[in-house]
Write the structure tokens for this entry.
Amino acid sequence: MGILEIKDINKRFGGLQALGDVNLSIEEGTVHAIIGPNGAGKSTLLNVLVGKLEPDTGSVTFEGKSILGLKPHQINQLGISRVFQTPEIFSTLSVFENVMIACFAKRDGAFQLNPLTSMGGEKDIHEKVEQMLLDVNMADKRNEIAASMSRGDKRRLEMAMCLAQDPKLLLLDEPTAGMARADTNNTIELLKEIEEKRGITMVIIEHDMHVVFSLANKITVLAQGTPIVEDVPSKIKGNPKVQEAYLGGAHE
Amino acid sequence: MFGLDKRDTTLFLFVVAITLLAPFLLNPFPTESALAQFNAGYPDLMQRFVIFGIFAIGFNILFGLTGYLSFGHAAFLGVGSYAAVWMFKLLSFNIIPAIALSIIVAGVFSLAIGYVCLRRSGIYFSILTLAFAQMSFAMAYSVLSNPSFNLTNGETGLQVYASDPQYLKGDGPDLTHLFGLEMNATKTLELGAWEFQFNTGFYVCAVFMIFAFYIAMRIFRSPFGLMLRAIKTNQTRLNYTGINSRPYTLAAFVISGMYAGLAGGLLAATDPLAGAERMQWTASGEVVLMTILGGAGTLLGPILGAAFIKYFENIFSKINDTVLHSWFSFMPESIDNFLVAIIHPFVGKGWHLTLGLMFMLIVIFLPGGLVDGGQRIWNRITGRSRTQNEPVADPKPAE
Ligand SMILES: Nc1ncnc2c1ncn2[C@@H]1O[C@H](COP(=O)(O)OP(=O)(O)OP(=O)(O)O)[C@@H](O)[C@H]1O
Ligand SMILES: [Mg+2]
């Protein structure tokens, strides 16, 4: 039994079968990559996992409990964090405040009525944020307003927010899209380090094969909403089905 | 000090000083001078400054922080006033029980309304709050005022009559008071050509406003306040970060409702009367204007906005043609008449026009409100460059 079990998920958008009979088991402590051409349904699958979409059929269990029908904040509080394909951050707040919110959510839960607590007194939160910013190499940007940063930095910030929560499962939707080469390599290093040090289970969607092959223990290829191959990285490259999906499939 | 950092302490002490010295600051012109009509340092108006300051400070906690624009907050103010007058009718003219009940009733009322309205956001939320407030207005105006059950006394408004029980009154004063200190007592200080008025009612309200400001400041600087700001920026991200935004918005709604109730209670405390017109949508709109004009989401903005609008309402509306003629009488008659004809639409009954124009200018050129304007001027004086954190355009996503 994996930490995350996805069974017989179907999702239609009108006439479009975005997900068809998806079965997937994510093993605890692994990095599982999901690849596939544009429009294959990768992001839709993540949307189902985080409570953004309700599938038409099927079940999703996390650590043995069903998470279908839960609200996004409830799913997050169970230990699932997601980095979105287009960065979702608090753009009018500073980098520091962005990470702070994630830390508060982790420590205090979904709601805490503390209007008279002084933020200055939250020493443990401040330390945690400082540490997190060091980890992602953003300590010098702590006071910058998030909106003013480059796309790559926004992604790193979003990753820092997710990591600050010490999730059990981290879902990454194209974490290096729009990043410069150097930043991509830094991100790979960061994710590798996290995987080794903290053993966080990760599901990573990525078009950049360099990233996929540097990180993944297992790869699932999704084409037109259905997993067609699941294997270890070394066996994926030569697989004729994969080549066909990418060359003959829905690739733009 | 008081759990505030150094900068906030300075700001707080500044507000305290300005508020307590208001009778001096608002009366800069000698009593007999032609400019004396621009003086705002008389009790009635000063009370309004601070009471509506409280209303706007509270409104800003909801609108300024979370971005939820309520068009119905006057309902809570009105409810607060009714609650206070009922306490005067039943107990005594002591304002403390009255104000306590105002806050409680407004809190309960806003909990119920907020619970329903916050199921929607954006324009739908605004429309829902407006609908609720208009319903409350209609109820107060007619439904809850009939011979068998008269809660609001309809069109006439709720007031205290000699026949009311006032069980705790004993031989206490016949006017609103704070443990014997009469609210309408005024001491006048004459200094040369100047005259300054110190009114008990104003100082009582001022202390409440300072306290209200202090609480707002603490909220702004708390993790709770941070979550409210996060709701305004990106509610989706907040939900996916494990925060349930609904109770946060509801708490902000109730807190701002209680502020409105306090303001309503104080209005009744300075003048023991409550009418349905206090709940009308124009009154709800006014607090929106105050907050935006002063600077939504800033600490000082709502106070400035409230003072600004109340000043216009009371000072500009009093300038009539006779006053205008007296200003320009030194000029030839034709020019005098011409100038009066031009200025006429903007003053007296036309003060709304001036206010509307000002509002437009501020929203267009100073989107951050008066506080933003003040900051720009300050930066110009001190030679500091404009805000460094201007957002940079997002580069096109690479797919
Ligand atoms: N909310 C929605 N309503 C209707 N159609 C949708 C919705 N979300 C996704 N789709 C469609 O479902 C299909 C799968 O989309 P999805 O975003 O999951 O693809 P993807 O694999 O993430 O692609 P990419 O690599 O471009 O991000 C696409 O055809 C898309 O247009
Ligand atoms: Mg996608």
About this structure: The mean pLDDT of chain B is 91.
